[in-house]
Protein: Merlin
Organism: Cochlearius cochlearius
Amino acid sequence: MSIRGLKKKQPKTFKVKIITVDAEMEFSCEMKWKGKDLFDLVCRALGLRETWFFGLQYTIKGMCTWLKMDKKVLDQEIPKEDPISFHFLAKFYPEKVEEELLQEITQHLFFLQVKKQILDEEIYCSPEATVLLASYAVQAKYGDYDPNFHEPGFLAHDELLPKRVLRQYQLTAEMWEEKITAWYAEHRGIARDEAEMNYLKIAQDLEMYGVNYFPIAQNKNHTDLLLGVDAKGIHIYSINNRFSPNKSFEWSAIRNISYSEKELTIKPLDKKAEVFKFFSSQLKVNKLILQLCIGNHDLFMRRRKVDSIEIQQMKAQAREEKARKKMENQRLAREKQLREEAERAKEELERRLFQLEDEARQANEALLRSQEAAELLAEKAQIAEEEAKLLAQNAAEAEQERQRLEITALKTKEEKRLMEQKMREAELIAVKLVKESDRRAKEAEHLKQDLHEAREAERKAKQKLLDITRLNYPHIVNYPQYLPTDTRDANFDKGSIKLDLKDIDLKRLSFEIERERLDYLEKSRKFEDRLKELKSEIHALKLEEKQSGLYS
């Protein structure tokens, strides 16, 4: 067969891009493939066996719809693009995630989709629950919390909380991270699949979990209600309240669901009960509602029947896989524990070794310091001995000086006493001299008075003698010096005797006065010299007393 013939036989293909929550894949599809062929290819690529939960979603004219499995892909109203994009998403939700989700890949895809719906605020969650769910998401992504590895700021690039919660509370990113980390640290030892399952078990209890909402009206003019379809049945909500339904129809209580153009009819199983009719905005919405109702009803009835062999095998494999993983996790946990214990023991040994090395280093340093201290002490002892000798010598000298000072002090005291006595004597002498001076002054005054009286008496005597001489010897009055001696002696015998006596007394008195004056001057000079000597001795004694006080 020629190469040209082979080329002609190759089927025509078109490209599709499959977008999962966390990845993208591209496939080449044959032109004749139906939706199920493409869906099975994607499931095989993902290793997914629980295919009944999932579907391929696309958007056309602003409306999300699901690829039909029994029609050709290209025959359906899909976007005209190359490659054609489809989102691989969960179309139906389990009632109890822990019992129905058997494969780890199924669980992981549900975890990623529900987490995205919570973050995009398609599912309402309270702030407290969002923090707890975020901690399980962090455990699934990063494993066990390690404060040495997971330093502050390690969640800065992760989207973990809805923007509504971030706006509701005035908390910084660091505060939110601290709150999430506090829960995250308590999940130690939980494996990734277990953390994801815990996340889903919390999320399945939220009111908006697994519900597809469609706007409807009780008449053709108004759209004032919401119709919700989930794993348990159909629910009617008011337009402003998606949490608490006004009315619910469980799948077990519904006999039939049908639509005609924009009219949707729900017939209860009880034939006597009222038939509910609602109106949607367009026909495609009714088709989508019916498609979701049929799928959820089939799964609802399937859960209440005996599991097929395939499901039983899958559950057995899941149990075995869980048991194996549990044992593996226990083994890993044990190994991790042993490794941590070994690391702790190693760290303890290293710490102990470092401590011993540090102690040895300190001991060596202490030994060196003790040796240096011993040498220093020996040197100090020698210096102290020399100082002791010097101090002993100084003490002896001080003792001698003390004794000398005591003797000097005694001498000084004695000399002081003598000087004080001499001063007292000098004072007495001075007093005596003053008194004697006063007495002598008085005597001198008396003597002067006597001398004055004597001179006055002499003058009067001379005058009287002259008067007598004129009367008796007028011819010799003017010549008294020529009188004969004998004559004078004879005529003035009595008067001369008296005159001579007077002259002798005056001379004697003058001589005695002069002599007393000279004695007084001599004694005064001697007394002044003695006073000067006493002052100099007192000054010398004061200096010695000051010096002896300093020595003491």
About this structure: Residues 355-471 form one domain. Residues 475-502 have pLDDT under 50 and may be disordered. DSSP finds twelve helices and twelve strands in the chain.
